[in-house]
């Protein structure tokens, strides 16, 4: 994708892998560490990592408000795993945890249990011809979705990828599977009029 610059929040977590996936697709990537780094981007990825640490750092640098503004001005946002927690409206049992509330879903952190903390599954995604090799790492579970939310993929009866307007969330890690189809989907969303 020529002429497109997408941002990856680079405070903590798996941001380098996202960068490489977008670069394979021909997009330019900027690592975002301060509010001014959002200028001129069409989209921003909030990566996997540790959602409480990431949220604290976002607040420290003023990125929580800056990202909400960026979204209000038309920027696309994609949260993966911890990032999906950060964009959610509600975090079960943790009303005090900072989140952006951009996606009308309720999530439960680390909800896939200890013995299956990490696993891979072939997950069909709406609009994709072949299932996606989804890597789950201490993934949150989406336990509720609002009316305006479109569920794009499910695993074991739970939504694992969802969208609402220009916000996308996946509880798995597409940047770790070597399959760039979800990154391509996000670039389409971010560059659509
Ligand atoms: N791989 C991940 O991003 C895990 C998310 C992490 N368990 C959290 O709650 O923040």
From TrEMBL:
> What does the UniProt function comment say about this protein?
Catalyzes the hydrolysis of glutamine to glutamate and ammonia as part of the biosynthesis of pyridoxal 5'-phosphate. The resulting ammonia molecule is channeled to the active site of PdxS.
Organism of origin is Truepera radiovictrix (strain DSM 17093 / CIP 108686 / LMG 22925 / RQ-24)
Q: Gene name?
A: pdxT
Please list every transmembrane segment annotated in the UniProt record, as residue ranges: none
Annotated Gene Ontology MF terms?
glutaminase activity; pyridoxal 5'-phosphate synthase (glutamine hydrolysing) activity
Record's catalysed reaction(s): aldehydo-D-ribose 5-phosphate + D-glyceraldehyde 3-phosphate + L-glutamine = pyridoxal 5'-phosphate + L-glutamate + phosphate + 3 H2O + H(+); L-glutamine + H2O = L-glutamate + NH4(+)
SUPFAM superfamilies from the entry? Class I glutamine amidotransferase-like
Q: Which residues form the active site?
A: 81, 173, 175
Q: Which NCBIfam families does the record cross-reference, listed alphabetically?
A: PLP_synth_Pdx2
Official protein name in the record:
Pyridoxal 5'-phosphate synthase subunit PdxT
